Amino acid sequence: MFKRLTLTVLALGLIALGIGYFKQQQSDARARAMAGGAPPATVTATRVELTPWAARIEAVGGLTAIQDVAIASEVSGKVVEIAFASGAAVSAGDVLVRLDDSDDRALLQSLQAELDLARIELERVERVRGSAAFSQSQLDRSKSEVANLAAQVERQQVQVRKKTIRAPFDGVLGIRQVGLGTIVAPGETIVEMQSLSPIYVDFTVPERHRAQVHAGQPLELNVAAWPQTVFQGTLQVVSPKVDERTRTLRLRGVLDNADQRLQPGMFATVHLILGDPEPVPTLPRTAISFFAYGESVFVIDDAGDRMTVRRQAVQVGRTRGERVEILSGLEAGDLVVHTGHLKLRDRQAVVITEGVPLPDDVIDG
User: Fold this and answer.
1) Rg, C-alpha atoms of the chain
2) Closest Cα to residue 321, out of 352, 284, 354, 353?
3) Three-class SS of residue 246?
4) DSSP class per residue in 162-208
5) Pick from 309, 307, 310, 327: nearest CA to 318
6) Which of 198, 251, 253 minimizes the C-alpha distance to 220?
7) How far apart are CA 112 and CA 177, in angstroms?
8) pTM of this prediction?
9) Angle between helices 136-162 and 102-127 (to 10 degrees)
10) Residue 281 burial (C-beta neighbours within 10 Å; 0-12, 13-18, 19+)
């Protein structure tokens, strides 16, 4: 019994010694790491750059065609010819659709014949002017008959022309809504048509910006369909009225859209340029750590024989693309960790593998 107890105590003692040794090794490893014994972390670096940025107002808007109509007939009739294809580009005056005009042309010929006869009768009356057979009342009636028939002929000519539907301006057609033989009613849509070059962008800004905006200012536009393209335009109209419900000011810009990549109805992000570009310190977004309590970066210090990092709080401003404005905490030229900062801590040694060219003394260190 005593021997078994002794063995148990010895076993527990060995276990305790093992645990103590393991803890000591962990403590020694941490101490060596704190003392700089851990291998340097590998990072890439970048510098705070002065980037020319102009003051601007960002807003959201929508694209609108300068001219947007639903092509329709003014009169009823049966479609006998379709002279366009859906989605085609057309010029002003191009024939789109012809309606059956046979009855209208027959009536026009009849009226033209009556007009010709009335003119002959008027000439006959005028030839006997001054003779005993002349009658002023007959002359007046003949003139009235000619004028009346001439008006009817002109009205019928207009009716015939209405049976041929033409493009009202240069533009692009939508999807055809009728087919051959369709009986169209007055006002019934045949096809939609838009003028796409140039194109409008409508957007609003808060009323506090009223003193900063005026017609003629440049603007830049981005759309989801072409995320890498910045479209250039000009502010054309500033509404004279502030919306009483939203307290916003409605603006309209115009953009050259010769390639027709911008289309009516697209959602757009608009940047209205307020002045000339000025240099501001910026960093890539990936160089900044964003936390609930603020933003920070790791600044790289040259300690002579090695490089170390220290966490530096910064205040950020505007974001444009992949770069962020630095309002305070850094100066132009400061060297900071670009990638790899998630594994760093204060005063840790680092080795730069990629990034901006560094001064010789930093590279040698």
Assistant:
1) 42
2) 284
3) coil
4) HTEEE-SSSEEE------TT-EEPTT-EEEEEEEEEEEEEEEEEEGG
5) 327
6) 253
7) 36
8) 0.61
9) 160
10) buried
